[in-house]
Description:
By secondary structure, the protein is an alpha+beta fold. It has helices spanning 3-15, 25-34, 62-86, 98-116, 144-162, 168-195, 263-271, and strands at residues 204-210, 220-225, 230-233, 251-252, 275-279, 284-289, 302-309. The strands form two sheets. The chain has a four-stranded antiparallel sheet with strand order 4-5-6-7, covered by helices on one side. Helix 1 packs across helix 6 and helix 2 runs antiparallel to helix 3. Residues 235-245 have low confidence and may be disordered.
Amino acid sequence: xxxxxxSLVGALLGQAGLKKKTGLAMPAxxxxxxxxxxDAACFFWLEGVEHLGFRRGxxxxxxxxxxxxxxxxxxxxxxxxxQERRGTRPKDRLPVNFKWLFLLGFIATLSxxxxxxxxxxxxxxxxxxxxxxxxxxxxxxxxxWLWVLLGFATWFSLRRERQGxxxxxxxxxxxxxxxxxxxxxxxxxxxxxTVRGTSSEPYPVLAIASPPPLAFWVRERIIESADGRWYSTxxxxxxxxxxxxxxxxxxxxxxxxxxxxxGEAAAFMLWSRAPFAERATDGSVILxxxxxxxxxxxxxFAVSLPDVKCEELPSR
Length: 316
């Protein structure tokens, strides 16, 4: 999910009562909820789409679940001591407890891969022990309805706190509503990937129900047929022409050694869940993923293989 959502989850956990456990609890929760995204630093040293094979990996796995909160707790504890030595420590700050800083950072850090699992991009929970991807297909990567719910609840809880009223209950209710919203979206996805996904033509080997940006009750169905082709339809069953059916698009057979062509190609094949090959204008091959074939995103999730000649698949 996006970092606004991660930050709001951390803040709402604090407003639900966790910030009373120790001084600097809110920074531990908000920073911890975003900390696994330190892997974004890979953009400084990786070329092109090589980041696809690195992001949502080792910093989202079990070793990071322990090390990142430990490092965060140490930095916050040291910051509190530094302020105390300088005489600038706020007088109204609660005593800082290292154990609670670690536990709160641990909870917040765990919330990050849990939220990332909810979209079609996926997350590698077991890295570095396994590079298997896990997908929830439940929410769009930026869910504005979740923004509204979490943002309003955080603001309302803080406002009630300033006014001396009951401020934890609104945050707890919002967390329960958010979990119910996520559960409802998961049920919609489950229906489209299993019940409906296996009962309509073309009968799929794999069905991916991809949530759109705003209409949370809708799913774009991306399905792989037995002949290895990918099809995409709206929730109503209307063909929307992804890849192979879009006008002017010519499919190529997937090269056997696609991942060995370059570092970018290897990263793409490690990451891709719905790969297909498309003919470029010069007759070479472009690797794409059916999950991200929208014209606004496709070029950010594609790899060119200029030295591979397209062997066209027969039209359907």
